[in-house]
Amino acid sequence: MFTRIFGKPKEQANALATLDKLNETLEMLEKKEKVLLKKAAQEVEKAKEFTRAKNKRAAIQCLKRKRLYEQQVEQLGNFQLRIHDQMIMLEGAKATTETVDALRTGAAAMKAMQKATNIDDVDKTMDEINEQTENMKQIQEALAAPIGAAADFDEDELEAELEELEGAELEEQLLAPATTAPAAPVYTPTPATASSSNTGKQPMRPTPQRAHSTPEDDELAALQAEMAM
């Protein structure tokens, strides 16, 4: 299991050692390239000095050595390119190997889990769950059923009676007239009332009208009017 997860130790060690070796070689080539470039630049300076000294032969020799250094630099550049290419291919192969190993590990783990889980056990468990659910549903329906006198009530009759009550309430609201509070009457004394006060009689007081008067209200209003005379 651990070998599949982390890859084969020997192969991984070889791949890492190869990459380290390539890196070391690449660093060595880069250092040599810098040295050769420095030497080529020195030969150019020497050629300039010989040219100022009118020593043409020595100046040409310096340029030849510069060309040789430049050829070596170009060769080293090709070597570096090949090493880079080799490192990229090796790293890609290493990543591919690790990916395949990881996929194999996942497949093995899934296979092991499937072996541990039997399809018959799953079906049995689901049947038990469905049975328990159905039993609970029946228990809840039994608890919700009415008992005693309430069990004899007809739900349709109760709903019809409720509809009649709602219809009667709506009809009463439609037939009832709109009620507004009447304005309070303002009493203004007149000459007739003033003369009646001289004879010792009380002036009649206006009685405010009430909305929705009943027979009892009418009798009470008539009694008050007689007492005021």
TrEMBL record:
Record keywords, A-Z: Coiled coil, Endosome
GO BP, sorted A to Z = late endosome to vacuole transport via multivesicular body sorting pathway; vesicle budding from membrane
Give its localization: Endosome
Chief place of localization: other
Composition-biased stretches, type Low complexity, lie in 180-194
- InterPro entries per the record? Snf7_fam
Q: Using the UniProt annotation, give all residue ranges assigned to the region (Disordered).
A: 180-229
Coiled coil (UniProt feature): 12-39, 122-175
Q: What's an example GO cellular component term for this entry?
A: cytoplasmic side of plasma membrane
Q: Which family does it belong to?
A: Belongs to the SNF7 family.
Q: What is this protein called?
A: Uncharacterized protein
Q: Which organism is it from?
A: Rhynchospora breviuscula
